[in-house]
Amino acid sequence: MNYPLGFESGRFQDKDNQYEVVASALQGFETMKAPQIETLPFEWQAGWEMLHTRERGKNDQRSERDTTPQYQTEEDRVAAEQPLYP
Predict the structure, then answer these.
(1) Which pTM value belongs to this model?
(2) Cβ(34)–Cβ(75) under 8 Å?
């Protein structure tokens, strides 16, 4: 889901959203047949903007957000791309 790190269980002080996020995640126990990563349909652009505003002026060395997988080593990439159940 497209929420900033640290808000994986829902928007700050929004109990209804937090409930929806956790309930959606728990549904995976009923629907998934094998380990996998599934995208949840939640997006919180204002959360990213909040963090950006909070960090403005600080020495933030993080890379820009990107959807391309990034690995520490080539060995990590090969391991991550292997199927779990051949």
Answers:
(1) 0.55
(2) no
Structural domains of the chain, count: 1
d(CA 22, CA 9): 6
Dihedral of alpha carbons 79, 70, 9, 61, sign: positive
**pLDDT tens digits for range 2-55:** 888 888 888 888 999 999 999 999 998 999 888 888 888 898 888 888 887 777
Q: Which domain holds residue 75?
A: 1-60+68-86
Cα(74)–Cα(76) distance, integer angstroms? 5
